[in-house]
Design goal:
single chain, alpha/beta, Rossmann fold, three-stranded antiparallel β-sheet, 12 helices, 11 strands
Length: 348
């Protein structure tokens, strides 16, 4: 057992689970340790996380008391200043100064509060979309995670094709706000989520708090695709993507996690999502045009060739406004319809 230092501002959320929900999550945690899932994902030739994500995920944890689950995320605030990561040598002095200046100056603390305040976020959203309101189906819960909610709402408003999907795949769903968004509009929705093992617990708890009766399968519970049809949501690890059959999804989605992967990993996921999309199905990516974290990760390096169509790219101004304090960063809404034919159609 080693002591590890908590070295940046984190998100925390507490949930009150049922006994069954708590046992399910404890069984999942036991599965992660017994199967050495972290090591298997880190060694995966296609989908291993970037060093940045390994650092963030390594500071994410779940705590259990007798009646409460506490989730703490390792993902930094967008403009947080990381200090101490490389030791305490003189090279870190400037980062310490910037960090202390931001905190004691008050501007950064105020910006972080506004970035999590539903009233402030709704006001900013209406600056760009004055005609758009929170969907009535979301009124009960949207303020629990207002920042991702309004980014999901913007993505929905900007979509060219807006039919509600029956089968949805999301890579990097995080707290699953987008899943809740679409399920609230279509209660018959079936969703498959590919995510890192630590993050999956955030999505499970949030979905269970919004939809107490939702049927969820965690990675240690999945079986065959046909056997899992009873589930509303299936969580899969990156090592389980082969469980998703071809041509089964109406809609594939990624928001703000492609920008945190290497470009090779992004393109492996884009090819995987193209395989799962039905002809005529839609892929939507909402990410920074140029990653602020990883060199070479830019939208013009995304490989959309297997969709046999050119993506429709437009600015996401609200999402860009949220990162606007960092000069040159722009969120891009890239939407592409899978124009590939099925093998049967191609033969005819």
């Amino acid at each position: 057992m080693k002591f590890t230092v908590r070295d940046k501002t984190m998100f925390q959320a507490a949930f009150s689970p049922t006994r069954e929900e708590a046992r399910t999550l404890l069984d999942y945690v036991r599965f992660l340790w017994e199967e050495e899932v972290g090591a298997r994902i880190a060694a995966h030739p296609l989908y291993r996380p970037s060093d940045l994500w390994k650092h963030w995920a390594g500071q994410t944890f779940t705590g259990f008391s007798l009646d409460t689950i506490l989730l703490q995320g390792g993902h930094a605030f967008p403009s947080s200043v990381e200090v101490g990561l490389g030791g305490e040598e003189a090279g870190n002095t400037s980062r310490w100064r910037r960090c202390l200046g931001a905190l004691f100056g008050g501007k950064e603390a105020a910006r972080i509060r506004q970035g999590r305040d539903p009233v402030q976020l709704q006001r900013r959203f209406r600056n760009f979309y004055p005609h758009v309101a929170v969907c009535p189906e979301h009124e009960r819960w949207y303020a629990w995670h207002p920042n991702p909610y309004f980014r999901c709402l913007e993505a929905y408003v900007l979509r060219e094709k807006k039919p509600l999907p029956e089968q949805m795949l999301e890579v990097g769903a995080g707290a699953c706000v987008n899943v809740a968004f679409y399920r609230s509009l279509n209660p018959s929705l079936r969703t498959t989520i590919i995510d890192l093992p630590e993050t999956i617990m955030f999505g499970y708890c949030f979905l269970k708090s919004v939809f107490p009766d939702i049927r969820i399968l965690l990675p240690h519970e999945v079986g065959s695709w046909q056997a899992d049809e009873r589930a509303d949501v299936r969580f899969l690890l990156p090592t389980q993507v082969d469980l998703v059959p071809d041509d089964c999804m109406d809609f594939c989605f990624n928001m703000s996690s492609f920008q945190e992967m290497t470009i090779d990993t992004v393109n492996h996921y884009l090819r995987f999502m193209a395989r799962t999309l039905k002809p005529g199905g839609t892929l939507l990516s909402v990410n920074l045009e140029t990653s602020r974290y990883l060199e070479g990760n830019t939208l013009n390096h995304f490989d959309f060739s297997r969709y046999h169509a050119t993506p429709r790219v437009q600015p996401a101004p609200f999402g860009t406004d949220l990162v606007g304090h960092i000069h040159g960063l722009r969120m891009a809404h890239a939407e592409v319809v899978n124009s590939a034919q099925t093998p049967e159609a191609a033969r005819h």
